[in-house]
Design a protein that fits this description.
heterodimer; A: about 625 residues; 5-stranded mixed sheet; 9 strands; about 10% strand; globular; B: 3-stranded antiparallel sheet
């Protein structure tokens, strides 16, 4: 079908031009615009000598439309609007798209214009035209959201959101009380607060809140008429679907933030213990809500955009870095049916959307107009782009066994017992797990691959010039990324939410086992996150060339060999189920021995480390 | 090639060379230093160290404040290891005035100098690990240094700028139980050095980052006037404490650590790092010996209230933590010196940077700066 289309598409312009040349009409079509057609697009036919005596000119579209479903003929005859002897226009409406069967694809064909001549006769001229047809995109999005099965979980999602908001409000109230006690200053009036807020320059979160409140109030009053209006446009489903998508997004971001916050505290405490220090222990019991205090402080800071920067890119960069990392939450499988969506290309989506971070970091580096930032941005780009390859290859050696790229399918096809995890599937996936983990460390700019923000070399790398909320976006993105990389490793290699000795069906139907699966998933993710933190405070940093050497000379070949080896293993052991089972258990025991040795060594060093010595008698 | 118009000169850059200012405010310049980097991406073509940000005219001040009055200023020459600078000035003035220092004072000077050497080297190796990206060893090094600071504080009341060594002896005798506490520290400290080796020295990434980087051959080290651990790391077996002994060193036994190219070439960054680690062990041994052999007697010679030296000029050399420190004093018979001059190790090490850093990467330059262990006030004085 594709080939036919290509052949035809070459033929059509030839026919068209020859027809135009041969036309005996007293007028001529010289060009047709535009090249992208959506609902509401105005089709413009330019030419010379158009007439409209008595009636409007007729516009006829004729040609072929190609999309992934195949090739089909397309024809549309409508009444155009005569603007001038040089221009006839027509607005393509919803009805036209309905008439054409809601088409989407590449159109190649002719536009025929028939004008009534002064004598009462008709004459026709034509011109070749190619364009892309899009129906309304929101509809497609809404359909996707509904099909992905989000609707049933909306209720608990909503509950979680309300709960979090109430919790936040309570926390803020309590913080106010604790900060000032009984002597708290008189609460300023709303007007005073607004004026004070206006007089300071901040990031726009307060503005966003106010705006959305105003919007909500407006919707409350205008709800009825708006509903009627949307109903007349038959746009209700779109709006509902979009709303659902937004709601799910909000929940996902909240979940991500609620993880990223505490992990910063965990990291600081762990680092402190490792370095014979105490770490943050003032805000809340053991400093557990230090992250909230830091976050609030960051939000309150002045939003500084240095004078010599490229302000637009500078403002945009944190969002471009932050969004794709959060977008991965759309496909992470938290439990048997608890995932925002289960698209059939889940792992591909994750691997590809995380590369969108690269332009964000480059933007931050470039827009800062600081050479250290620029170096950081370039390092980040080179590093992330390189390490995606071994990460993808490592995942591929598992995908061979799954036969699917869906995240849920990756979990479902693994067994619950540890020796049925993909990490112990064969020696190649065992190695692939470690290489994948290291590569995702490099992709997430974590030590020992934290070159883009190496503080001793590049001051702070691409985020040197950032402060306040914008810095927090980079910062939070980095910590959410710890969760994401651990979650992907858990999903692909460590059995995800599978409970040992329990079938997938049993887990999908029971709320209790769903919760147990969720707990298991989070436990595995937390262990991996701890390892990420542990590595950061243990290892020195590689040099740029060593980083690249590690990737291209070691990781890429080894993962490639692992991929081939995994495929061969699959072929050999497909019919030897018993032997396969025995080998898996052997690999599991070997892996456990390795982990046990590591734990023993850690424990030994923990016990035998010299404590701090105090000799000063007056101390 | 055609000469570009003058006003566009700053835009005319045929080699696409990037000029970077590393410093004066940069995390890894170890003080207020500026390195002007001419780089091709990450690879350095040329580095021009710009010194002088911390110049405080110490030598001119010496001409105004007198022989005794200058002693607190010498603390500020090298604030990481102030004892040796104290000692250097004291020895020069003693030589000038012909003052005999009591034996006990010489031993006390040696003890504090070696403790101070350990604390200085702890900063050096800890910050070197931090510059390479391993943050954890640094607090461990600082933790040990705290104990030394406690000991020295007990001795003289100051933790950084001691003013402990005076012309003619030392300021105070040891407090009660100090020897015992010092021995307790040494018992604790020597095993922590093994821990430190486990923690970072033999770490594969650390070795890969430092071995064969910025190699300084012996001839070059001598030609550029490198001193101290930097010189010994290049394989030159030269230590003032052994070869031109002063103070109590003639009566002590110790080894001199010399770079052997353990993991790479003799004189690379890792050698410069490890020579310091070994020196810390030797210093601990020296302190032990001194405490064992510590004689009784006065800790301060009788010195005149106003010093008007009879001698014309004197020169004293000590092995400071950053290598040989030389003090040259000229007297005109008045209470103030006519001229004083200090020769320090860091300044010459900075001269080497421009030559040695060609073709390195930016991360290697950080390692190089850390490994030569410069202290900004010692460069500029």
């Amino acid at each position: 079908v594709q080939r036919t289309f290509i052949a035809l598409s070459f033929l059509v312009p030839l026919v068209g031009t020859s027809a135009a040349r041969a036309a005996d009409a007293p007028f001529q079509v010289t060009s047709v615009h535009p090249e992208r057609v959506e609902v509401g697009t105005v089709l413009e036919i330019h030419g010379r000598g158009f007439t409209a005596e008595g009636s409007a000119p007729t516009v006829r579209l004729q040609g072929f439309l190609a999309n992934e479903q195949g090739l089909r003929a397309l024809e549309l005859v409508v009444r155009g609007v005569y603007e001038s002897p040089r221009l006839v226009v027509y607005r393509i409406g919803q009805a036209d798209f309905e008439k054409l069967g809601r088409v989407r694809g590449e159109f190649r064909g002719l536009v025929q214009l028939t004008c009534p001549l002064p004598g009462g006769t008709l004459a026709t001229a034509e011109h070749p035209w190619r364009a892309s047809f899009f129906p309304r995109n929101l509809k497609a999005l809404g359909d996707a959201v509904v099909q992905s099965g989000v609707v049933p979980i909306v209720n608990w999602v909503l509950a979680v959101v309300i709960l979090l908001l109430v919790w936040l409000a309570l926390y803020l109230g309590a913080a106010r009380l604790f900060l000032y006690g009984k002597n708290r200053p008189p609460r300023p009036t709303a007007l005073e607060e607004f004026l004070r807020w206006r007089s300071r320059r901040r990031a726009g979160w307060a503005g966003v809140t106010l705006l959305s409140m105003a919007l909500g109030a407006g919707l409350w009053f205008l709800g009825g008429p708006l509903h009627d209006f949307l109903n007349r446009l038959s746009a209700i489903p779109y709006v509902v679907h979009l709303g659902l998508a937004l709601l799910v997004a909000i929940v996902m971001v909240t979940v991500a933030l609620l993880y990223a916050g505490p992990i910063t505290w965990v990291e600081r405490r762990v680092a402190a213990r490792m370095q014979s220090r105490v770490g943050p222990n003032r805000v809340g019991p053991q400093g557990i809500i230090q992250w909230l205090a830091d976050g609030l402080k960051g939000v309150q800071k002045e939003d500084i955009i240095p004078a010599q920067t490229d302000p637009r890119l500078f403002r945009m960069a944190p969002y471009i870095t932050f969004s794709p990392i959060f977008a991965t939450f759309a496909v992470l499988p938290f439990s048997a049916t608890w995932a925002a969506t289960d698209v059939n290309v889940g792992i591909l989506f994750v691997l590809s959307i995380t590369s969108v971070v690269v332009p964000g970091l480059l933007m931050a580096g470039w827009a800062s107009n600081n050479k250290w930032s620029l170096l950081g941005g370039i390092r980040a780009a080179a590093q992330i782009v390189s390490y995606e390859i071994p990460a993808s290859l490592a995942v591929l050696s598992v995908v061979l066994y799954t036969g699917s790229l869906s995240m849920q399918e990756l979990v479902r096809t693994q067994g619950g017992a540890p020796w049925n995890w993909y990490v112990f599937q064969n020696p190649f996936t065992f190695i692939a797990f470690f290489l994948f983990f290291s590569s995702s460390l490099a992709e997430g700019n974590r030590a020992p691959f934290d070159l883009p923000e190496a503080e001793s070399e590049l001051v702070s790398g691409y985020n040197t010039e950032y402060s306040g909320m914008r810095f927090l976006l980079f910062f939070v993105g980095e910590y959410v990324n710890i969760y994401v990389m651990s979650a992907i490793a858990t999903t692909v290699f460590l059995g995800g939410w599978r409970v040992p000795l329990l079938s997938v069906a049993a887990q999908e139907t029971s709320l209790f086992w769903q919760l147990v699966g969720l707990a298991l998933f989070w436990a595995k993710v937390s262990v991996l996150s701890f390892v990420v933190v542990w590595l950061r405070w243990t290892l020195p940093r590689l040099r740029v060339d060593q980083l690249m050497t590690t990737c291209w000379k070691y990781f890429v070949p080894i993962t490639l060999i692992g991929f081939i080896g995994s495929a061969l293993w699959y072929l050999v052991f497909a019919d030897l189920a018993v032997l396969d089972k025995i080998l898996r258990v052997v690999f599991f025991l070997m892996g456990s021995a390795l982990a046990g040795y590591l734990l023993y060594r850690s424990w030994w060093h923990f016990k035998h480390t010299k404590a701090e010595l105090f000799v000063n008698p007056w101390l | 090639m055609e000469q570009p118009p003058r006003d566009l000169f700053h835009l005319y850059n045929p080699d696409e060379e990037m000029i970077l200012n590393m410093g004066p405010q940069h995390p890894s310049t170890h003080g207020v230093l500026n390195f002007k980097l001419y780089t091709d991406g990450e690879v350095i073509r040329k580095v021009v160290p710009e010194v002088g940000y911390l110049h405080r005219s110490l030598e001119k001040i010496a001409e105004k404040v007198g022989y005794y009055g200058f002693m607190p200023y010498t603390d500020r020459i090298d604030y990481v290891a102030a004892m040796t600078a104290n000692q250097c000035w004291a020895m020069a003035v003693e030589k000038l005035a012909g003052i005999e220092v009591p034996k006990r004072a010489e031993y006390l000077r040696t003890i504090v100098a070696e403790l101070n050497r350990i604390s200085s080297h702890l900063i050096a190796v800890g910050s070197m690990a931090m510059d390479i990206g391993a943050i954890t060893p640094f607090p461990y090094a600082l933790r040990e240094r705290e104990t030394i600071n406690d000991l020295l504080e007990e001795l003289c009341g100051a933790r950084l700028t001691y003013n402990y060594v005076w012309v003619g002896g030392v300021a105070f005798d040891l407090p009660q139980g100090w020897e015992e506490r010092c021995l307790r520290f040494l018992d604790h400290f020597e095993p922590t050095l093994d821990e430190f080796d486990n923690l970072i020295s033999k770490n594969h990434i650390f070795v890969e980052r430092l071995a064969n980087i910025a190699v300084v051959p012996a001839e070059m080290a001598v030609a550029y006037g490198l001193v101290g651990p930097n010189l010994r790391a290049s394989g030159v077996d030269w230590d003032l404490r052994r070869d031109v002994p002063y103070s109590a060193y003639p009566e002590l036994e110790f080894k001199v650590a010399v770079g052997q190219g353990w993991y790479g070439t003799v004189g690379d960054c890792w050698d410069r790092y490890y020579v310091r680690v070994l020196e810390m062990r030797e210093s601990a041994k020296i302190v032990r010996q001194c405490l064992r052999q510590l004689p009784d007697g006065p800790y301060m010679a009788r010195v005149p209230k106003t010093l008007k030296p009879a001698g014309k000029e004197a020169c004293a050399r000590v092995e400071a933590a950053r290598g040989e420190m030389t003090c040259y004093v000229v007297s005109d018979g008045t209470p103030n010196p006519y001229r004083a001059r200090f020769r320090t190790g860091s300044f010459n090490a900075m001269g080497l940077v421009e030559h040695i850093s060609r073709g390195l990467m930016i991360a290697d330059l950080v390692a190089l700066i850390a490994s030569i262990d410069v202290v900004a006030p010692e460069i500029d004085r």
